[in-house]
């Protein structure tokens, strides 16, 4: 069994989902939960994009320990210096710098020739390296780049000091078999790849992000970049819960493991959905409302006789309790605390006391206090902070 590192970019690529904007306290709350979930790297943001994002990244770097905290930077001095300013207080800081390598991006976006791209990549990695030993380099739009040129860029970045090389499928164009081959060839052709971890970052435009990431792992990638609930630019990124549970459930054909505490998956999903305002579709794999529900009589009968007839995972494994407590006016503090914890809210004694008073007032007006009621109640509290 080989270890695959989980690089979570919910707070960077995930926050690039149209309509999503998180404040510093919301980002910090998610980062704390990601650390609890056991991700290896939290990409906390893209500090050059706004003073607010830079402040949020600094806060996470200061407060969240026991995990690598990364900040994104284009291959430019100002971006890299700003990223470093933001993460310099982290226990384990990583600068993640990138430049595009596909001809289409070179011609229309960067208006740069290939030699200049290599020079910029090398200069960016060298500058980042002055600040921290942990430097990741990404070749944006790698999957649509000329393989030989891409290999030259990758080799130059490793020689300049990059310790992680990320191969993004930026526009979700790759197909699993082809992408797996692509990764294998990079590892074969670049002589210095034993000095760096190969990572992949797949987007979901064709619904293939998880399949492409799995194909890459089978061919030598040892870091995957992903987001909670698969949120991200356009159709989103590889979903963390899906790739982690695919590796966990199919160890027989995928002999890899991650450091993820799977029992924390559901509450992380709920927290991200609540704070981003992006609902999770009911039929979403692993964390959707219907993921462990059975509707047809045949399925219900099968599950009642033996759960594994129609369930390939035990819902408890991802933190979904099989039976739920109904919360009403006779419920106590303990039940409320547990339910709030399931929904991703870890409260201090004082916060719980306040929440309990509000909950009782609500319970007097309603027969049952639903998760939605509790989420609305907690969002109101967070907004006050
Ligand atoms: O999709 C992409 O190429 C990215 C890079 C910045 C890693 O998000
Ligand atoms: Zn991306």
Q: Would you write up a description of this structure?
A:
45% of the residues lie in helices and 13% in strands. It has helices at 24-37, 51-63, 77-87, 103-110, 114-131, 147-160, 176-189, 209-218, 240-249, 265-276, 297-305, 333-342, 349-365, 371-384; strands spanning 2-3, 5-8, 41-45, 68-74, 92-100, 135-140, 164-169, 197-202, 223-226, 256-257. Strands 2-3-4-5-6-7-8-9 form an eight-stranded parallel barrel, surrounded by seven helices. It is globular and about 70 Å long. The chain binds 3-methyl-2-oxobutanoic acid and zinc ion. 3-methyl-2-oxobutanoic acid is lined by residues 13, 98, 138, 140, 166, 168, 170, 201, 203. It catalyses: 3-methyl-2-oxobutanoate + acetyl-CoA + H2O = (2S)-2-isopropylmalate + CoA + H(+). Residues 4-266 form the Pyruvate carboxyltransferase domain. Homodimer.
Oligomer designation: single chain
**Low-pLDDT segments, ≥5 res:** none
Please tally the helical runs, counting DSSP H or I stretches of 4 or more residues. Answer: 14
Please count the beta strands (DSSP E, at least 2 residues each). Answer: 10
Q: Could you give a short account of the major beta sheet?
A: 8 strands, parallel, barrel
Shape: globular
Q: Mean pLDDT, nearest integer?
A: 94
Order of helices and strands: EEHEHEHEHHEHEHEHEHEHHHHH
Distance linking N and C termini: 44 Å
Kindly state the percentage of residues in helix. Answer: 40-55%
Ligands, ions, cofactors: 3-methyl-2-oxobutanoic acid, zinc ion
Instruction: Report the sheet-strand fraction.
Output: 5-15%
